[in-house]
Amino acid sequence: MPEALVLDADAVLWSTERSALAGRHLLLLLHGYGADEHDLYPLRGYLPDAFAVASLAAPLVPPWPAPGRSWYPIDGLDGRDPSHVTRAAEAVIAWVDAHAGDAASVGLLGFSQGAAVSLQAMRLAPQRFSFAVNLSGYVTPGDLPKDAELAERRPPVFWGRGTNDDVIPGFLVEHTTQWLPERVDLSGRVYPGLTHSVSEQELDDVRIFLDKQLEERTDAPGR
């Protein structure tokens, strides 16, 4: 059995002092392949101030000469094994349990690989995560034990992607298009001309989505 992945707690970028997290709503940022914890951290300027933000570092180093870090392999046979996405998601859940247990709620915002891991983490622990933002990502094929619980809870998920994104294979986009509406409260948009990236229009939509999540959690503490 493969050894469990462990996230580097010292590499996490926090928007607030860790000691000030208690009772705050926490938003985790999960970067894409070849990036690191610094990549999405500047997005906090577009996000509601009420969130404490923690930008995580993926646990793996891509094969040379690729820069940065990765959540799971994308090349060869390993790149087609969904268990690697699950291992990465389990590492995120373990980090949350160890370092964010006192947060009022925990949401996920991931890009590409980070989005796939975010959705996988929500599938593994539907009760642990309040919502997810999926930017240019996808749902990993295959069944998980708590998918039925996820479908019953129907947590909010925002999915944004571009019409010119040629990185995510079409069959994964199609799978995600069919899978998400049956199991989550889905919102989002397809952005004309957008490549495998994030636009300001998309960030405006993400801000609206996150403001709504804060409003609902303020009205119903503990959600």
UniProtKB/TrEMBL annotation:
<feature type="domain" description="Phospholipase/carboxylesterase/thioesterase">
    <location>
        <begin position="22"/>
        <end position="212"/>
    </location>
</feature>
<dbReference type="InterPro" id="IPR050565">
    <property type="entry name" value="LYPA1-2/EST-like"/>
</dbReference>
<protein>
    <submittedName>
        <fullName>Carboxylesterase 2</fullName>
        <ecNumber>3.1.1.1</ecNumber>
    </submittedName>
</protein>
<comment type="similarity">
    <text>Belongs to the AB hydrolase superfamily. AB hydrolase 2 family.</text>
</comment>
<dbReference type="InterPro" id="IPR003140">
    <property type="entry name" value="PLipase/COase/thioEstase"/>
</dbReference>
<dbReference type="Pfam" id="PF02230">
    <property type="entry name" value="Abhydrolase_2"/>
</dbReference>
<keyword id="KW-0378">Hydrolase</keyword>
<dbReference type="GO" id="GO:0106435">
    <property type="term" value="F:carboxylesterase activity"/>
</dbReference>
<dbReference type="InterPro" id="IPR029058">
    <property type="entry name" value="AB_hydrolase_fold"/>
</dbReference>
